[in-house]
Amino acid sequence: MEPETQQTERKSLWTPEVILQAFKEVITALLGLVVVGYTLVLAGQAFTHVGKPEMAEAKDILLLVLGLAGVVVGYYFGRVPADARASQAQQQANDAAAQTEQVNAQAQAIADEVDEVMDRMARPSVTARGAESSVVDPSLAEDLHRIRDDLRSLSRMSRRR
């Protein structure tokens, strides 16, 4: 069954969104390479016209193409740091969400403990003579102190981030 699981995992990596993004990346890279390559070819040809009357025309064409090449190079050099920052921000968001989930689960568990203690406090205890007493058991007070300390530690943990 392991080969089936591995095939399913490989197939799940290539979702339609990933395929479309890869297609866009390939097309963008090809266009960038064509523009930069064409600019280099024109620059090479412009050097052959140095000192000739047609140098002014070659210079004008080269000026336009160099602008496009600058845009392409700027796009790729600016994109790498931006992608890295986006990846880092996404990781931080995931970490924060996981910590929030942990804090919420812990808070719910503590709330359940408080409910349990409150239920025990609400029940009257029966004395040895059979009479009901409303005296609070010392163990309940200890439980409340422990729960209070747990809530304080939970509060400190949520403030760290």
Question: Would you kindly provide a brief summary of this structure?
Answer:
With 161 residues, the chain is an all-alpha fold.
How many angstroms does the end-to-end distance come to?
43 Å
Low-pLDDT sequence parts: none
How many structural domains can be distinguished in the coordinates? 1
Major pleated sheet:
2 strands, antiparallel
Radius of gyration from CA coordinates = 35 Å
Structural class: mainly alpha
Overall geometry: rod-shaped
- In total, how many beta strands? 2
Proportion of residues in extended strands: under 5%
Q: Specify the number of helices.
A: 4
- Share of helix, binned: over 70%
The pLDDT mean sits at 79
Written as H for each helix and E for each strand, in order along the chain, the element string is HHHEEH
| Adjacency order of strands in the biggest sheet | 1-2
What does this 3D model show about the protein?
- This protein has helices at residues 2-13, 16-48, 55-122, 138-159, and strands spanning 125-126, 132-133.
- With 161 residues, it is mainly alpha-helical.
- It has one domain.
- A two-stranded antiparallel ribbon has the order 1-2.
- A hairpin with a 5-residue loop joins strand 1 and strand 2 (132-133).
- Helix 2 runs antiparallel to helix 3 and helix 3 runs antiparallel to helix 4 (138-159).
- The model has no long low-confidence stretch (mean pLDDT 79).
Using brief descriptors, characterize the structure shown.
two-stranded antiparallel sheet, 2 strands, 161 residues, mainly alpha, 84% helix
